[in-house]
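re: ur question from earlier - yeah i can do the single chain one, its not a big deal. heres the input i used so u can compare w yours
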Amino acid sequence: MTSPRLPFMSLVPGDDAPAVKQAIDRVIARGWFVLGPEVEAFEREFAAASGAARAVGVGTGTDAIALILRALGIGAGDEVITTPLSAAYSALAIMMAGARPVFADIDSQRLTIDPDRVAALVGPRTRAILPVHVYGQPADMTAIARVAARFRLAVVEDCCQAHLATEAGRPVGTIGVAGAFSFYPTKNLGALGDGGAVVTNDGALADRIARLRNGGQTDRYHHQEPGINSRLDEMQAAILRARLPLLRAWTERRRTLAARYRERLAAAAVAVPPERDAGHVYHLFVVRSGARADLQAHLRAHGVETLIHYPVPIPRQPALAGVDPAECPEAARACAEVLSLPLHPALRVEQIDDVAATVRTFAHRGRES
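and the output i got, formated as C-alpha cells:
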C-alpha cells in the first residue's frame, strides 16, 4: 500500500521530542510510576492552564465522564441528555455510570447539541446534560446553562476534543459543574498512551473523584466506597507536563491554519461549518459534502489522507439499542456528509493551500458534469 504524500497526521514527537525524552528519563530514573509527583504537578499545571481550581488525573476521558457522574450521585434510573454526534464513548460513559443516555439532535450549523431540543427532552428522570465540544467547537453553553437552571440539572462538559477552548470567553470545563478531558495521542494535548482528567471548581467534587479513581480509598487499604482503578500514570503525566507549555502556541497555529482553509475553500462546492465562537480550537477541521465518498477518493488519488469523524450517529450503534434511542435526523445527515481534512500544528501553509486546491478541483469537476 502506497503511503500518502500528505498523511492525516503523525504521532511521532516533533519540536517537543527533547522535552518528552527528558520527561521519560526522569520518571525511569525516579522509579515511581503510579500516583506520584508527576501526576500531582500535572494536575496543578493543567488546572491552571484550563482556568479551573482543581484537576484530577484519571485513566481515560471516558472514565473522566463516568467518574464525574458517579461523584454527582447519578446512576441507575437516571437519564443524561447528550449529543448523537461524537465518539460513542461519550454515551458509553453515561452507561458506565449506570444511567441512560438520551439523545438531543444537533444544531445543523454548530454541529453541537441543540439547546432547544435538550429542553424538549427533559423528563422526571433527567439529572444532567452532557454537551460535547465536538471537533473543538464549543457548544452553546450560554443557552445550555439556561436550560439547566430552568430544570435544575447538572451540566457536565465533554471537553475531550477542546483543550483550551472557550465559549463567550469562559474556559470550557469550568462553565458546568465539571469538565472531562482526554489525552489520547491524537488529541490537541496528547500523551503517548491513554490518559484523562477532570477539571472543576468544586473542591469537594474533586476530592470524591480522586477517591473514586483509586478504588474509593481514603488512604492505602482503606476503601470508603466502591471505586474503580483509573489512575493517570506517572509516565504519561510527565509527557503531558513536557507538552503542556507548547499547547497554547499549538492552538494558535491550528486556528491560523483553519482560517487559511476557510479562506481557500470559500469558493469550493463543499460546506464548511461556521465558526460560532472565537474560542474554537480546531481539534479537527471538517467539511461537508453530499458526495463525500467521491471527494475522499479524489483526495486519496492525489495523495491526501482524510478521515471521517463520525460515520454513524451514536443512537444507531448496536451497543445503544438497549436504551431505546430516538432518531436524530440532523446528526444522521452530518454523519453522512462530514469529512476531516488534515490539520495539525506541524502542517505548513503551503500544504493547506495544496489540500484546498485539490478540494476545489473536485468541486470544479463536479460542476462541469
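The two ends are 31 Å apart (CA to CA). not sure if urs matches, ping me
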